[in-house]
Amino acid sequence: MRIRSRRAVVKLVISPLLCGLLVATLVSAAWLAIGSPRPAAGAVWFQVTKLGGARYTGAPDQPFFALIIGTGARSDDPNESRDDPGLADAVHVIGVNPALNAATILDIPRDTEGPGGQKINSYIVNRPANDLRGMADAVSQVTGAPLTYVIRVNFPNFVEMVDEIGGIDIDIPTAMSDGFSGAEFAAGPNHLTGDQALAFSRDRHSFNNGDLARTSNQGLLIISALRTLQKHNASAGDTVRLVATVGRHTKLDGVSIPDLFHLGQYALTLDAANVKNVVLPVGNSGSGSNLAKTVDAASLLADFTDDGVLQTH
Description:
By secondary structure, this protein is an alpha/beta fold. The protein contains nine helices and 13 strands. The protein has helices spanning about 5-35, 80, 130-145, 155-165, 195-200, 210-230, 235-245, 255-265, 295-305, and strands at about 45-50, 65-70, 90-95, 100-105, 145-155, 170, 175-180, 185, 190, 250-255, 275-280, 280-285, 290-295. The strands form four sheets. The protein has a seven-stranded mixed beta sheet with strand order 10-1-5-2-3-4-11, with helices on both faces. A hairpin with an 8-residue loop joins strand 12 (about 280-285) and strand 13 (about 290-295). Helix 4 packs across helix 5 (about 195-200) and helix 7 (about 235-245) packs across helix 8 (about 255-265). About 40% of the residues are buried. Mean pLDDT is about 80; it is low at about 5-35 and about 80-85.
């Protein structure tokens, strides 16, 4: 058996320590430069709730699912928002498969029928107000996806968030002209400010299929935001600064700052080209004006929920 020299053994031990020290120094320096990411120290952009027992680590290999919702609520304080809790007019389930370095965004139209016959966007206003767990349970029953995280975006503060990260670069598929949302965009590459990003994500009058196109465009905006953030936050220091900024505007429930850092770190390494954006197949066969899942939905959801990505759809 070959015996390593003392120098080689020392090198094997010291190298990881030096790497760890370097990373710790980088993180500390960035933290000092940007400030400790005290959650919800400013206007709340996100509320992140962990539902499952899964813990995201630096080397994940299991798929997980997150529910992303956007509401028109004016406040995140349940006492203040009881009179205006805000319907969830943006509903998306993101399946992430770290082993494949791939993800799928499943866009759920707001009028999709949920359990009990309510529209899916209304479950968040059940008492108590801003009931993220109740909303997650309803979406999970519709999709079959076991949700680990729920991320709630307050639409009014969405504008501030987009502006602070420097806007979003997006390739808009078709021209948009909607006096209701304020969306006025030519097809092709555009750089959106916060107000423009909100108008883009709310436009349903520029399209014949209305809300189906709107929810698909919201998924496109998420992917475009990921691309933009990756372009402007290429280094480890950039990642720390970005997470610190987001952390100061995030209300955490069951999620630690290290969890948030690891999630952000992974998101910035996920190849946006490997993220599919698909609308849940629905039709007009639901009760009243509700949209019911079509026969095509069953096979798509089975493909999606088994590992977080679509291979056959």
